[in-house]
């Protein structure tokens, strides 16, 4: 059960901004008394503000303390409430506001952070939650488990609105609608109905869009099928074209090979003719060389010619001959020029022949193509074919376009007809579905109305039985005996009871004070022990860390705060430790780097050493000398090179001398003279001398090759050695380079080893420093771990010592005496309580009798209420039956229209299918016509292009043709000129032969040499002629083969053109279909169909679900309203019968009447407060009751509303309940409130499951306060006054004995305020919390 315990106000309205005003709420009654305008109502406004966030009428600025009154620029305002939530947890809610002076002298109000502090298990430390992480207002409602409307209109009701239950009907309706949240429900249902209407319209549009998307998808499927077929056709055509292309390529390759073969044959024929001509010339030349053949060798003949040319006679003849030879050379040059012209003419002749053959074949192909096109299209072959084809293409195009336009117009008409039929069918389907939904709803509504009528009919049988039960109860009520106690006796017992309660209260206060002093004594003893314990604990911790303190400070810090200083040292130690670790890490890295450098350089040194050894091994392997020194390789290589050059110089003359000696031996035998000086041998020993010289020369020629071979062998050996040494020289150079590198690396290794030693020393030093700093850091960590605890022990000990010294004098003066009197007062209290218990038993017996009478009265009222509800149903029966008949009429109308649609539907379907079939046929005809026209036009254009290409090619060949006759004339002229030049050259040669007798021998020898050359040339030409020999028959066969291939190629070109035309037509259709399918509409057809299908399904389900939800909410709202109103009336009747002691009004209740249906056809209610008079008549209570009865009725209704809608909160505030009441009415009101508090606080009520009450009464009437104090006996009451020059409101607590004090805040609120003031509030979590509990407590009616 939630209830309020304590509240602090500061800076609210007239309450001072510098001091906190404390109010502690009592159970069951807290009285706040004060004159008008002193600030009593501000307390209720503050409670309402912290619970709901509501600010009184006006701006927040008027709710906060005035800056002018405070004479300051800023006022800090505070409302702090300590309460128990519905889980009995202690909660402290705090809201802080600020009123300050802004720019230009304007007041600025600002709401600061709001906090909730939860004490889950009654502990001293709470969990603070900020409004930054939760919704503060919602969380307050959750913790109190009460709606905001109940708090504002029931619990914290302002005095001006405290009698709203008996106000005018409109105000009453607005209040109850706010409490029931009917306005929100009605608005929700109106919005939902509007949304339902929109959804239905959207659903109809979705159905239309779905049918349209379905038609587009069907059209897309047809186009995809056609596209697939055309692609297959195109693939077959492309496959056939590839076959033709392949055959064409093969034929072209074979034709190229055959043409090359034919060209080679022609070139061979040409070379053979040239060779034959050369051979004829050589034969003629041979016939002219009338000299005997030389019997010796050609070299010998040349030698003799050289000897002859060196003679003087020959030189004179040579000059004459030179002139003749120059002429011969001129003839030769002219002959070569004429031969070049003849070769060029032969090439022109060959080209002209090939071009003539190509022109003839092209002309034949053109004639054949022209005749084929003429026969194919029915044209004339003697007229220019291109013009005829252009005219034919234009005619075919215009004719095809006209046909296609006609078919397209027919197709558009059919498509419009299909769309019309589809729309008609869609409209019919939508109407049919709407009718079915309407019929379903009408049937459901009629069934519901029939069930309700049946229930009304059956309920009429209950009325007599209910009236009998009421009569029985009335008899029981009349048979009840008179009360056992008179009214005078009851008043005496009440007076005695109050006197005993006052005595008990005084004794309890005295005992409580003594117990408090006793507890204070025990607390002082415990505090002393705790102080000593804190000091011992701190000394133990200091002893524990004595070594660490000595290490850090060289002393133990016994009297100084430790935490702050050690925290600073801790930060510096961590930074130094981090720096030292970084230095150590750098030293380790430097050492690793130096070691890696040593390892790397050592590996490089070893690698170089291994390289040197390998190179030395290679030198040994190359030279074969295991003892060779690499430094000697260069010298040995130079020596070997010198030997090779020397051997080569010696070998060259020997090879020339051998052939010379052999030649000289032959000349000696032939000429019988010395070969050098040409002196002969004389005398008898001529032949012997010749033989000796020849033999000697022969021996020398034989001996020299042997010497040459030996020298060559030695040269080869030296060359091999030279090559080996050259390779070894390269290795030796590498060894020298490696040696230099090895020496450098060796020095680097030594330097790196020294660096390693330096790094090791540095690393050891850094490790020692790190170890020292780590020890200091560990000492700091150990001290830091207990530093806050040691400071806490020191602070606690000092605080306890101060508290002990502060209360020492008061304890000895007052506390000891109060503890001694405690036992006597406890014995007196026990006796007084026994007397009070006996008196209470007598009063309880009287109360039980009254309770039984109240129970019977309550049951009678319930039965009367039941009869009243049944009567209301009977009154509404005619309207219900009329609505049922209306449902039946609408249902019959819908069924008739549905039957018409069922008949008309198949007819619409047949019309749509017929229109779709006609449209598809028209589309096929249109596509076929377009395809035929495109194929024909492509065929005509292809034929025209081929004719144009072949005509242009033939014209180009004709233009480039060379005149063959002129080429032949050029060849004949060249042959004639060559014959003339040969004749003149022969004459010159004959004249050369005839020059002088001295040159006859030279001429003969030259002719013999020429004859040798002639024989050699003729042999070469005959051999070449044999190689060039070929058959003319084979050439003719190849020419026929080439012609056949060209004819076949022409056929393939024609087939390829036809396939191109067919492919182009199919491609055009494929592109058109692809363009249609790739259009935005076709691309999105499937997605659009699925989207529209989903939309249709979703919106259809949404319409059904929303309709069901609206009906469920409407029915649930009616059931909820009926249930709550029944509960409210039961509580009102119980409280009225228990509290009202008059005899004129037996009971009151709240009547809820269903208002006329609005345009939205939703339920709304009107409310009246009815009272049942003693005569049994039930009348409207408004303006028919006294002020006291009005106030009591309003209070009871507010309590009933609080019980019904806030079952976990029993608090209610009464603001000036005695306004406009006279003295008697004030007394009656006090008596009624006392009786109400007694009933709600009684043991029977609480044990029966009822909730208690916490009433806050704010009044200015002292008589009313005295009366309440006599009846309820509160422990104290509050008095609010305004005093001082600033007219601040102050609150004093006044006890029963007349003592007065200013209430002080509880320890919980004091501790919370100290934490806030000291800045020690718990850090608010950064994450967003759901509430005080992680699982949110959401209030739900």
From TrEMBL:
<feature type="coiled-coil region">
    <location>
        <begin position="815"/>
        <end position="873"/>
    </location>
</feature>
<keyword id="KW-0479">Metal-binding</keyword>
<dbReference type="InterPro" id="IPR027417">
    <property type="entry name" value="P-loop_NTPase"/>
</dbReference>
<feature type="compositionally biased region" description="Basic and acidic residues">
    <location>
        <begin position="478"/>
        <end position="495"/>
    </location>
</feature>
<keyword id="KW-0067">ATP-binding</keyword>
<keyword id="KW-0547">Nucleotide-binding</keyword>
<dbReference type="Pfam" id="PF13476">
    <property type="entry name" value="AAA_23"/>
</dbReference>
<dbReference type="GO" id="GO:0016887">
    <property type="term" value="F:ATP hydrolysis activity"/>
</dbReference>
<dbReference type="GO" id="GO:0000722">
    <property type="term" value="P:telomere maintenance via recombination"/>
</dbReference>
<dbReference type="InterPro" id="IPR004584">
    <property type="entry name" value="Rad50_eukaryotes"/>
</dbReference>
<dbReference type="GO" id="GO:0051880">
    <property type="term" value="F:G-quadruplex DNA binding"/>
</dbReference>
<feature type="coiled-coil region">
    <location>
        <begin position="570"/>
        <end position="618"/>
    </location>
</feature>
<dbReference type="GO" id="GO:0007004">
    <property type="term" value="P:telomere maintenance via telomerase"/>
</dbReference>
<keyword id="KW-0460">Magnesium</keyword>
<keyword id="KW-0539">Nucleus</keyword>
<protein>
    <recommendedName>
        <fullName>Zinc-hook domain-containing protein</fullName>
    </recommendedName>
</protein>
<dbReference type="GO" id="GO:0003691">
    <property type="term" value="F:double-stranded telomeric DNA binding"/>
</dbReference>
<dbReference type="InterPro" id="IPR013134">
    <property type="entry name" value="Zn_hook_RAD50"/>
</dbReference>
<dbReference type="InterPro" id="IPR038729">
    <property type="entry name" value="Rad50/SbcC_AAA"/>
</dbReference>
<dbReference type="GO" id="GO:0006302">
    <property type="term" value="P:double-strand break repair"/>
</dbReference>
<feature type="region of interest" description="Disordered">
    <location>
        <begin position="517"/>
        <end position="537"/>
    </location>
</feature>
<keyword id="KW-0175">Coiled coil</keyword>
<feature type="compositionally biased region" description="Basic and acidic residues">
    <location>
        <begin position="1030"/>
        <end position="1052"/>
    </location>
</feature>
<feature type="binding site">
    <location>
        <position position="677"/>
    </location>
    <ligand>
        <name>Zn(2+)</name>
    </ligand>
</feature>
<feature type="coiled-coil region">
    <location>
        <begin position="189"/>
        <end position="272"/>
    </location>
</feature>
<dbReference type="GO" id="GO:0046872">
    <property type="term" value="F:metal ion binding"/>
</dbReference>
<feature type="coiled-coil region">
    <location>
        <begin position="307"/>
        <end position="348"/>
    </location>
</feature>
<comment type="similarity">
    <text>Belongs to the SMC family. RAD50 subfamily.</text>
</comment>
<feature type="region of interest" description="Disordered">
    <location>
        <begin position="1026"/>
        <end position="1063"/>
    </location>
</feature>
<dbReference type="Pfam" id="PF04423">
    <property type="entry name" value="Rad50_zn_hook"/>
</dbReference>
<keyword id="KW-0378">Hydrolase</keyword>
<dbReference type="GO" id="GO:0000794">
    <property type="term" value="C:condensed nuclear chromosome"/>
</dbReference>
<keyword id="KW-0862">Zinc</keyword>
<feature type="region of interest" description="Disordered">
    <location>
        <begin position="478"/>
        <end position="498"/>
    </location>
</feature>
<dbReference type="GO" id="GO:0030870">
    <property type="term" value="C:Mre11 complex"/>
</dbReference>
<feature type="binding site">
    <location>
        <position position="674"/>
    </location>
    <ligand>
        <name>Zn(2+)</name>
    </ligand>
</feature>
<feature type="compositionally biased region" description="Basic and acidic residues">
    <location>
        <begin position="519"/>
        <end position="537"/>
    </location>
</feature>
<feature type="coiled-coil region">
    <location>
        <begin position="708"/>
        <end position="780"/>
    </location>
</feature>
<dbReference type="GO" id="GO:0043047">
    <property type="term" value="F:single-stranded telomeric DNA binding"/>
</dbReference>
<keyword id="KW-0469">Meiosis</keyword>
<keyword id="KW-0158">Chromosome</keyword>
<feature type="domain" description="Zinc-hook">
    <location>
        <begin position="630"/>
        <end position="730"/>
    </location>
</feature>
